[in-house]
Amino acid sequence: MNSTFRRMAIWFNGLPAEASAQQIIARLRTAGINHPFIAADHERDRAKIQEVIEEAHRHELTIHGDFCKGRLRNQTLRDLAQVLKDGTQQPLLCPANPACVDYVLEELRRVLSAYAYDGITLDDGYYFATGATYHPEAPTGRNFTVRPACYCAYCQRHAPIEQPGWEDWKREKVTALIGKQAQLARELKPGLHFSSAAHMPYELAYYEPHRAEIPYYEGWSISQCRRGRMVDWVEWVRRGHVDFVLPMVYYHSRDLVRWQTDECRSLLPNAATTVWVGLGLGTVTAEYFQGLSDKPGDRAHDPAMKNDAMVLDAQLQDQLRLGQENVAFFCYSELSDEHLPVLARYR
To answer: I want to staple 90 with a disulfide (CB 3.0 to 4.6 A). Which of 15, 66, 129, 131 is the partner?
Structure first.
């Protein structure tokens, strides 16, 4: 068993205004983190991003730009949004719409032209909405109702809506969009690292033996990646669209983290290097934000459910025992002083 990781990454959910680029990179170096992922506003934070990139390169860190144009953040793009059957617009762009594809690729071209990133990682916003709502009195006897997308004008003309093959059609449209982004990125910057965040679980069926021990099991039936969100990140790796994926395994429970890591390892023969499991720092755990059930807000914000240094140390030991060579963390704003010496031991 290895005692250290080859690569340790961390996401920035925005750059801290109070810290200089030098202070940010110094803190990462103290923790042994060598792959920062910068999620920031590429217009508003342009100068700060450039400073962080330059400082990272000065210390030979590999810096990635977090890119996601799959969400509806600008109402001028509402004609590209996903739509439910009842006409409700979703806060996601439709990956099937060629106009959406053109918009995403043009934005990616702009970012790659403006910033000296060593890699691009896609955020988690490329998927089809489930329209799921928590409703414990639903006639089905289940706690969730689902109203899947997409019924936008483009899909109504071209998609096999509510027909056999609709789910496969949606998955392939998402995969095609990822592939086009990867192709463009590598054409513009040969050798660029190209990766993506990955929703978990991938397939709910894998967890059936542990069903009674998973407080979120029914919710996972909706959020499972391949059948719920119509995202097949395993196929992205197999086709070479992405160099690696970063599954978002943000739990306090060591069992849940281990089981989701095990699922990843069962899916890809080279998972030790192509899967960088994302671990939550501090309050970034399902147990803290949601509580110990599918019910939103049920017993949430229990301080005991935070991932402090001791919990993180145990999760990192588990990753090494399972054979993982790389790991990631979310996010920089939750990186506490007590985390730093623990992380440093693993590099």
So the answer is: 129
